[in-house]
Design brief:
- The chain is an alpha+beta fold and 155 residues long.
- The protein has a domain of 96 residues: Immunoglobulin-like (Sandwich).
- It is built from 3 helices and 8 strands; from the N terminus they run H-H-E-E-E-E-H-E-E-E-E.
- Strand 3 and strand 4 form a beta hairpin.
Amino acid sequence: MASRLTKKWLAIAAFGLALPTLPCIAQTSWPLITPNEDARDRAAPRVPAPPDTPPPPRIDLLHPDISRPLQNPVTIEVRFTAGTGRQINMRSFRAAYGWLAINITDRILQHAVKGRDSLSAANVALPTGDHRITLSIADTSGKTASRTFRFSVAR
């Protein structure tokens, strides 16, 4: 009986030795940076960002909820937010569809209700499947923002 167990263990050991070695996680630590690199970085002068650099506008999709497939027709509501002391330049609004960035700006503006900092379009018909729309906007300081929305439309 003991010889059978010994033979099994020898077979298992031989099989293990025949396997290619796999990379494993290092058991010892290694330096991400050297002490000299750390010292150089700490001694380097810090150049702060100019205080008057305004952040870009923000683009928020209020409706529909694109976390799940949509049902036609769809109402689309978008809000744009500019930073303190600035306003959204609605004339800068652009919309592009898909990977080819097909310009759909005029089509949206033709059917949308435009606010000072928002757009709302009702009864939008979308083909079934996966879609990608990129919206962009600028504020009165000239800062621009772009945001891509990916969503699916159910049958």
